[in-house]
Design a protein that fits this description.
Length: about 450
């Protein structure tokens, strides 16, 4: 493919009403329309600050990497502190860097050799409950599976009823997510009873995980052990709870959605599913995957990468300027917000042939060498790139391989699931498939 890296015009301003109405009604379509109609930088002048939606890899790289010290997380995520506390996702500056360095050992590549058996065992046990010829919702199934994997990997155990309690709390938080966009005081948000209950349930589960006295080998190798070991030197009790909650939620939800979208794609593209199954049978046979196998499953990896392109769980992100700077020829003033969308960028025809088509093969020749770095950024970038990127990729490939070698999925609906953007990109009505043993 010959990639065209030209810029589009950058001097268009959108009214606040059109922006708010569009983002409320259909944010994916709205941002896509902005990029196609107005160019690589769309200016939205809001009452308190300017918003700039940028849609070119160079501008995204400027905001996330080259000028990352000029920006902090966007307003919506800043308001998420009411739920997540001062954890890795919400902290900034020197504090964030110190926390990340302390937590990094839990996500180094060699740690995958410890996590992978837990991923395999949990997947095997989860599949054992399935029945040939039954209809399942892969969105729900993958959510339960990845939550169990997160509990065992990060905390060394799964307390009784924790999966159900976290799942129920997550559903409530998703419904109340619009509260994060409304500039209310924390006290006002607590007036919503469902919000209070969801937060209380999550706190109780996290407290049980943090205070667990068990000292099995799994616990000693887990994230919670790293947190407790650093308690006297760095982390307060409140920060330990914040980190535990952050990894409990972020450590399973986005990967669950990625896997659900993978099965939606595979069920509607049977040739891709067959090719994936053939690769898994050739590489694994009847074995559980090892770390070496994960690298050999090249087509399976390509399915995951292509799904991340077409259905990125993190579909948009924002950065707020803390001082005046420039993106290209556009001045960004302190307090202005720069928005970027993985969804829009990953569907840009300037950088991808047939961007609306599911083509895992596009990744087999490693075309990222022909792409600007930030034409593809499912895990973000810069010093705030997702710390769990390698964990998530390993888990997604392992789970897909484990399931695909035993089960075939056929879609129950003619069309693929409709993406519903909320905190993350979720399937509107789940991913219903007929599963059959092979």
């Amino acid at each position: 493919m010959e990639t065209n890296f030209i810029f589009k015009s950058t001097q268009t301003q959108v009214s606040p009403f059109n922006f708010i109405w569009g983002m409320t009604k259909n944010p994916l379509e709205t941002l896509t329309t902005f990029a196609k109609t107005y160019g690589d930088i769309t200016h939205i002048q809001m009452p308190r600050r300017n918003f700039y939606f940028v849609n070119h890899p160079d501008f995204i790289e400027e905001a996330l990497v080259k000028q990352q010290s000029n920006f902090v997380k966007g307003p919506a995520l800043q308001r998420a502190r009411i739920i997540l506390g001062e954890g890795l996702l919400t902290s900034e500056g020197v504090e964030h860097l110190a926390q990340r360095r302390a937590l990094q050992p839990a996500f180094q590549r060699h740690k995958m050799e410890e996590y992978l058996p837990l991923m395999n065992e949990n997947t095997f046990c989860h599949m054992a409950k399935w029945e040939h010829g039954s209809v399942v919702d892969m969105a729900e199934e993958m959510m339960r599976l990845t939550l169990n994997i997160a509990l065992w990997s990060f905390f060394g155990n799964a307390p009784q009823d924790s999966v159900e309690r976290v799942g129920d709390a997550m559903k409530t938080l998703i419904r109340t997510f619009p509260l994060a966009h409304i500039p209310l005081s924390d006290e006002m948000r607590y007036l919503f009873p469902n919000f209070r209950k969801a937060k209380a349930d999550l706190f109780r589960v996290t407290e049980a995980l943090v205070d667990n006295p068990t000292q099995t080998e799994n616990v000693k190798r887990s994230l919670i052990h790293i947190l407790k070991e650093n308690n006297k030197n760095q982390f307060t009790e409140a920060q330990i709870h914040a980190h535990a909650l952050t990894f409990l939620l972020a450590g399973h939800e986005t990967t669950a959605l990625l896997l659900a979208w993978c099965w939606d794609m595979l069920a509607h593209h049977p040739h891709a599913q067959t090719r994936l199954q053939n690769e898994v049978n050739e590489v694994l046979g009847n074995r559980f995957p090892t770390s070496e196998d994960i690298q050999k499953l090249t087509y399976t990896n390509s399915v995951v990468k292509e799904t991340l392109r077409m259905r990125p769980p993190a579909w948009a992100m924002g950065r707020q300027a803390i001082k005046n700077c420039m993106l290209g020829k556009q001045e960004i003033k302190a307090n202005d917000v720069v928005m970027m969308s993985q969804w829009v960028m990953h569907h840009d025809a300037r950088f991808y042939d047939a961007p609306l088509q599911f083509r895992p093969e596009r990744w087999l020749l490693n075309p990222k060498h022909n792409l600007p770095r930030y034409a593809y950024f499912p895990f973000g970038g810069g010093n705030r790139v997702c710390i769990g990127e390698h964990f998530a990729m390993t888990e997604a490939v392992a789970v897909l391989a484990m399931i695909a070698r035993k089960w075939k999925a056929t879609p129950m609906n003619k069309n693929m699931s409709i993406p519903k953007p909320s905190v993350t990109l979720r399937p509107h009505a789940g991913v219903k498939v007929l599963i059959e043993k092979i």
